[in-house]
Amino acid sequence: MNEPVPALLAGHPNKLPRPKGELEALQAAWELPKSWRIVTSVNNTVVGYFYVAAAVLFFLLAGILALLMRLQLAVPSNTFLSPETYNQIFTMHGTVMMFLFAVPVVEAMGILLLPQMLGARDLPFPRLGAFAFWAYFVGGIIFFGTLFYDLAPSGGWFMYPPLTGAQYSPGLGADFWLLGIGFIEISAIAGAIELIVGVLRTRAPGMTLDRMPIFAWTMLVFAGMIVFAFPAVILATLLLELERAFGWPFFVPQKGGDALLWQHLFWFFGHPEVYIIFLPAAGMVSMIVPTMSRTPLVGYRLIVVALIATGFFSFGLWVHHMFATGIPALSLNLFSAASMAVALPSGIQVFAWIATIAAGRLQLTTASLFVLGFLFVFTLGGLTGVMVAMVPFDWQAHDTYFVVAHFHYVLVGGMLFPMFGAFYYWAPAFSRRVLSERFGKAAFSLMFIGFNVAFFPMHITGLMGMPRRVYTYPAVAEWSVLNMISTIGAFLFASGVLVFLFDLVRNLRPTVSDPIGDVWKGASLEWLHNHIYGPRSIPLVTSRDPLWDQPGLSEESKEGRHYLPGTVTGQRETIITSPIEAMPQALQRLPGDGWPPLLAAVFTAGFFMLLTVKYVTLAFVSGVLALAMILIWMWGSDQRPLPHAEIGHGIKVPTYVGGPLSHSWWAMVVLMLVAGSLYLSLVFSYLFLWTVSPQVWPKPEQMPPSLWPFVSAVLLTASSGLIVLAGRALPVRSRNRIAFVAAIGLAVLSLCGSLGVEVLSHWRAGFRPDVDAHGALVYMASFLQLQFVLTLVVMAGFAIARCLAGMLSRRRRVVFGNLALLWHYTVAQGLFGLLLVHGFPRVA
Amino acid sequence: MSAPRTRPFADLLRLFVGPTVWFMHLVLLYGVEALICTPPVGSGRAMLWLGVVATVAALGALVFLAVMPAPRAEGRPSVHTGAAYLHNTSRLLAFLSAVGVIWNALPVALVPVCALAAS
């Protein structure tokens, strides 16, 4: 379906022949580091390979843990694993599968595929992507290693207190979970920011939002959901760690806390998490089905609607994990209804795929088989999902193997089968050889049969009353047979994975320059002649299925007839386009390879892990080194403005932009959404604990005098005003630096002063963080504010240093723009916090 | 010819208005029940009326969203722009959200407030 494009973009942007040396210059700019130095590469294809490989490694490790569990449960009263080891293994299996495989592998596929699919040369923040990967990999390996030192957590992947509090989990295991997973989630958020800005700002010219591949839509929704869901669990991990380390009683009922607060925060993350991993997999299915059926996707618009609706609806379901906690009947029914409502958008997608298959003629390739397997298994999981959405049924099935069967049908069906289909489908885009269809079909058969043999009987074992998370069971005849069948099925499934691995070793030959390419005759841009720099020239897109509707596009792009056929500045570059209409707006110069992102990730992991084992000094040394690496990397950002550059068709775009035109502005806005989401989780915690224990909240006369919050608010507002003044005092060239430096310095003092006044006011009023839940929450609000204040102090110092070095001016001002944005956000958050903490007890 | 006029933020945000109304409606009902059931326990009639008001307000907002005019480029409705596409998508989302709002309002009419589920 070709649609008109603005005349500005019509026709061939460039003439042939292309100048001599143009291609060689492009290749030189994108040349990769040699041999082992490849680890310093920040290019999306290389980082994407590493990312996918690491995620698959964690899948295999967690899979081995699953097999150990099945061995233990194969026969009753088995002594193969001790109870404590079994607890550690099921905790690590769930944690690794969810946090180290499911989310990262989806993010990895996004980093690997999106630039090529969108016609970009790379994602807009390559070093952030590399940092996210290395942080995840190093942190993940250390976390998994705890199993070998008997330091692994054993409280389940959901880590409910009080079981995971200091009293019942006194060792380091829970701390490793809290700090390790908290850290890995920060890496996931970094990746999400990269993906959101990438999808919105680096699409090929002409690729309006309604021409964007569904996979990109799903990655946009996926990343948006991470932005709003992950902060809740990051806050939860912070609260529990503070309770364990310093006795701040957020979850201790005797002091006004409540263990249910953890469940609310965890499942506000945990339920969307299911859709966070399902939606991108659904996006992959939406790419595979049309190609294999040789027909455009039916219901593109409805699918986009369904994706967004599912993303939103998933945030309204968290309480359905808490049906057995004593919540009033009306609230249970509210969430029961919401849980059923989500079937509506999910159903839209399933029917759209079936309609597409019916409209075309499906080739039964390995990828297609995995899609069909997905449809079967996921639909069964969805049906049992509707069953457990009914409160009375849920009470019967709660904490039994029925639930284990349900969520494995949803997760393996909804995510793993599409992922394996995706591996087979996209391998030719990145490998010199295709994967074997023969081995692929064998792998699918073993996995599909093995999965159903393993998990279908669990519905029955659950209905017969077998509870989850037990390391063994008595010799009840029916349980024994069903468990043995499940164990046989698990090993059958594992044999399918082994066949897949054999196929990988035998046939996968990763390459960045000459993949075998478009063997499936796909419609989207990743099937162009792609190299490490993406396509030779960035294509003009006039259709939703460009390679089907724009004949010759692949060759034209390869010849350099489209946009940016070389390098204008001699550096790595990509085109920044407008978020909705994909009109060219700027030329972004991308950074080259280097050590700082890798080292920053290693030292950040060091900081968190050393802190966990209580090596505080070493942890802070590691933290300072991480900060130094980040500053080194940032110093090379915000490069000197250059003249406008022509990207083809006579279109000249700026090489330097600020404000909403700049990609970094968008990233900062997304970061502020993350921060706001984290703070809202704290506000929820404050109000929730008040409803539980209003008696520990102070009476108005016990509150600090109003003068204290007033002074704090004035100082906060003044700091924002000083930042505005600093913006006006930005030097035009090398003069007037003193005014700028003075304004920033005073703003820092004012900001720090406001926080100091706030903390002092509570201390003088007699509030202590370890006495009751109110005190703990009040200091927690200041703790969150402190994080931003410290960040801003570093950023302010960085801005002053760049100003003094002549690298920050009225024209070259992106560093300052980002500082100002975050500053005003911090002030707004601080003012809101003052209103809540000082105002609420006075009116409640 | 100049590029079609775009308002990236407004257009992208409008996409999320419908589902946000659904979410706020759900959270409001849930939060109000929690407040009413915090001792001293409030009246069930208040919950019912609040549910009616919240549902009418949410549906009103969704209808308003659905009837808002499409964005215009250079004074004319722009058919082949991402903005127009987003506009239509936000209408569909408003419809789906309205179904969700009505569905979620039913328990307020049918289930007594503050009752324990087992009773």
Rg from Cα of chain B: 19 Å
Q: For this structure, what is the CATH homologous superfamily of the largest domain in chain A? A: Cytochrome c oxidase-like, subunit I domain
Q: Please mark out the parts of chain A with pLDDT under 50 across 5 or more consecutive residues, or reply none.
A: none
Count of beta strands of chain B: 2
Give the class of chain A from helix and strand content and strand pairing.
mainly alpha
Distance between the termini of chain B: 69 Å
CATH first level of the largest domain in chain A: which class? Mainly Alpha
The backbone outline of chain B, from C-alpha atoms, is elongated
| Main sheet: strand order of chain A | 1-2
Number of domains of chain A: 2
Assembly state of the chains shown = heterodimer
The residue-averaged pLDDT of chain B reads 82
The coarse overall form of chain A would be globular
Key structural traits:
heterodimer, A: 844 residues, mainly alpha, Cytochrome C Oxidase, Chain A, Four Helix Bundle (Hemerythrin (Met), subunit A), 2 domains, two-stranded antiparallel ribbon, 24 helices, globular, B: 119 residues, two-stranded antiparallel sheet, 3 helices, 70% helix, elongated
Describe this structure in words.
The complex is a heterodimer of chains A (844) and B (119). Chain A folds into 2 domains: 41-507, Cytochrome C Oxidase, Chain A; 659-843, Cytochrome c oxidase, subunit III, four-helix bundle (Four Helix Bundle (Hemerythrin (Met), subunit A)), CATH 1.20.120. Chain A is built from 24 helices and 6 strands. Chain A has helices spanning 22-29, 44-73, 83-118, 126-145, 173-201, 214-246, 259-293, 300-313, 329-341, 343-359, 366-389, 391-397, 401-430, 437-463, 477-507, 546-549, 553-559, 596-612, 616-635, 663-692, 707-728, 737-764, 773-804, 814-843; strands spanning 530-531, 534-535, 572-577, 584-590, 645-648, 651-653. In chain A, the strands form 3 sheets. A two-stranded antiparallel sheet of chain A has the order 1-2. In chain A, strands 3-4 form a two-stranded antiparallel sheet. Chain A has a two-stranded antiparallel sheet with strand order 5-6. In chain A, a hairpin with a 6-residue loop joins β3 and β4. In chain A, α2 (44-73) packs parallel to α4. By secondary structure, chain B is mainly α. Chain B has a domain at 23-70 and 85-106. Chain B contains 3 helices and 2 strands, in the order ααββα. Chain B has helices at residues 8-37, 44-67, 82-110; strands at 72-73, 76-77. Chain B is elongated and about 55 Å long. Chains A and B meet through α8 and α9 of A and α1 and α3 of B.
